[in-house]
Automatic annotation (TrEMBL):
<keyword id="KW-0501">Molybdenum cofactor biosynthesis</keyword>
<dbReference type="GO" id="GO:0005525">
    <property type="term" value="F:GTP binding"/>
</dbReference>
<comment type="function">
    <text>Transfers a GMP moiety from GTP to Mo-molybdopterin (Mo-MPT) cofactor (Moco or molybdenum cofactor) to form Mo-molybdopterin guanine dinucleotide (Mo-MGD) cofactor.</text>
</comment>
<feature type="binding site">
    <location>
        <position position="105"/>
    </location>
    <ligand>
        <name>Mg(2+)</name>
    </ligand>
</feature>
<keyword id="KW-0547">Nucleotide-binding</keyword>
<feature type="binding site">
    <location>
        <position position="105"/>
    </location>
    <ligand>
        <name>GTP</name>
    </ligand>
</feature>
<protein>
    <recommendedName>
        <fullName>Molybdenum cofactor guanylyltransferase</fullName>
        <ecNumber>2.7.7.77</ecNumber>
    </recommendedName>
</protein>
<keyword id="KW-0479">Metal-binding</keyword>
<dbReference type="GO" id="GO:0061603">
    <property type="term" value="F:molybdenum cofactor guanylyltransferase activity"/>
</dbReference>
<feature type="binding site">
    <location>
        <position position="75"/>
    </location>
    <ligand>
        <name>GTP</name>
    </ligand>
</feature>
<keyword id="KW-0548">Nucleotidyltransferase</keyword>
<comment type="similarity">
    <text>Belongs to the MobA family.</text>
</comment>
<dbReference type="GO" id="GO:0046872">
    <property type="term" value="F:metal ion binding"/>
</dbReference>
<feature type="domain" description="MobA-like NTP transferase">
    <location>
        <begin position="13"/>
        <end position="167"/>
    </location>
</feature>
<keyword id="KW-0808">Transferase</keyword>
<dbReference type="GO" id="GO:1902758">
    <property type="term" value="P:bis(molybdopterin guanine dinucleotide)molybdenum biosynthetic process"/>
</dbReference>
<dbReference type="Pfam" id="PF12804">
    <property type="entry name" value="NTP_transf_3"/>
</dbReference>
């Protein structure tokens, strides 16, 4: 098996910031500030050391996102069709064998997220690996925190063309492995202004 450093060079990282932010009043979630930095900056700083190249998927505020110094890719489809469109965008631009994805509103993602997903994917030969946690709400799947073989693009293109939108349904069509992580809090999403205030107060 490749060392983590060698493996990282074969992985493109993508931060998904292409949503509508409906539950936060329609604001661009990735640009909301936590401890003096935009949420997306927290995520970029955690993901950057784990991958070889890095980009942001955004459908608005592209100039603001470009200031972080990474390529900004917009969905191939219009009208904000959801996170699968962000994955499709990443796979379309990906020039490495693997694509790692994380959401812009999870500022506590583990520093070893990609390494664990990579180890599981390599050992199983699966097409995709997603993070899973056990907590107070039971077993939670986090499909937006994923590692994908670049060859899954054709499957996703066909799924979206047929009107598919649900992440769980598409992942269920793949050879997908679930990878357990011990810290449920690391995958917390900032979906509302209250979520942001609570995290600001906790740390």
């Amino acid at each position: 098996m490749s060392s983590p450093a060698t493996a990282a060079s074969h992985i493109t990282g993508l931060v998904l910031s292409g949503g509508r932010g409906t539950r936060m009043g329609g604001v661009d979630k990735g640009l909301q500030v936590l401890h003096g930095k935009p949420l997306v900056q927290h995520v970029l700083e955690r993901l950057a050391p784990q991958v070889g190249t890095l980009a942001i998927n955004a459908n608005r505020s592209q100039l603001e996102y470009a200031r972080f110094g990474y390529p900004v890719w917009h969905d191939l489809q219009g009208d904000f069709p959801g996170p699968l469109a962000g994955l499709q965008c990443g796979l379309a631009h990906c020039h490495t064998p693997l694509l790692a994805t994380v959401p812009c509103d999870s500022p506590l993602i583990p520093y070893d997220l990609v390494a664990h997903l990579y180890d599981a994917l390599s050992a199983s030969g699966a097409q995709a690996a997603i993070a899973v946690t056990e907590g107070v709400h039971g077993r939670q799947r986090h499909p937006v925190c994923s590692l994908l073989q670049a060859t899954t693009r054709a499957s996703l293109d066909a799924f979206l063309a047929a009107g598919g939108r649900k992440m769980d349904r598409w992942f269920a069509s793949l050879d997908c492995i679930e990878v357990d992580f011990p810290d449920e809090r690391a995958f917390s999403n900032i979906n509302t202004g209250l979520d942001l205030q609570q995290l600001e107060a906790e740390q």
